[in-house]
């Protein structure tokens, strides 16, 4: 990157593979960077679910006038921006619909036309997980919630992290398991290996996320259907022994 000074005013645009831009140091000339669109199998799968849910809204929900019920539902349940924050925003009915139906697709459930009549508030207070370096990852216990036969459990995890890491961003987590009311302790070793290629060695740290999705029956147009209410995920750090 080269910095230059000119007396004719600002310069913008690109020449070949070079780009004129400006930062806090003034006008600069840098090499043009082309964004990389990573297309792993997991990313293609996730994008496909959201794309299908968005198409379902446009082709099925909106033409049937069920968008009115979704918008009313979204107006009554603003979402908080991050754990522990007081700020909440009202999202559109379409955004809620796409999020819920994409989640349903991930759990192997059919998409639904109607919104739930309430939003999920039940969530675990704590989770206990353990791992043996190079051998296993297990979810031992979930506290603060009683899972019903119709509840789904979603387990996400990260790859190995530096021991000094105090904050683990949500983008680090990958879904490794999702099933209906599994028995505990729950071994997710094979699922972790399938996503990350192996279990980290002894002493490594990974993050584990647990989310309970409440599924139940609600009345709404056009017929009685089941619905999803995902609770907030609970995170835990695991040091492999």
> What is the radius of gyration?
23 Å
The total of beta strands comes to 14
- Residue stretches low in confidence (pLDDT < 50, at least 5 long) are 219-225
Gap between N and C termini: 46 Å
* Count of separate structural domains: 3
Walk me through what this model shows:
The structure is a single chain. With 241 residues, the protein is an alpha+beta fold. The protein is 22% helix and 32% strand. The protein has 3 domains: 2-31, no CATH class; 41-106, no CATH class; 126-239. The strands form 4 sheets. Strands 9, 10, 12, 13 and 14 form a 5-stranded antiparallel beta sheet that branches. It starts with a strand and ends with a strand. Helix 1 (41-61) crosses helix 3 (93-106) and helix 2 (67-76) packs across helix 3. It has helices at residues 41-61, 67-76, 93-106, 189-196; strands at 2-3, 13-15, 18-23, 26-31, 79-80, 88-89, 126-132, 136-143, 152-157, 174-180, 186-187, 205-218, 225-230, 234-239. It contains 4 helices and 14 strands. Mean pLDDT is 80; it is low at 219-225.
Summarize the structure.
The chain is an alpha+beta fold. The chain contains 4 helices and 14 strands. Residues 219-225 have low confidence and may be disordered.
Looking at this protein, list some descriptive labels.
four-stranded antiparallel sheet, 32% strand, 3 domains, 241 residues
Topology:
Blueprint: E1 2-3, E2 13-15, E3 18-23, E4 26-31, H1 41-61, H2 67-76, E5 79-80, E6 88-89, H3 93-106, E7 126-132, E8 136-143, E9 152-157, E10 174-180, E11 186-187, H4 189-196, E12 205-218, E13 225-230, E14 234-239
Antiparallel strand pairs: 1-4, 2-3, 3-4, 5-6, 7-8, 8-11, 9-10, 9-12, 12-13, 12-14
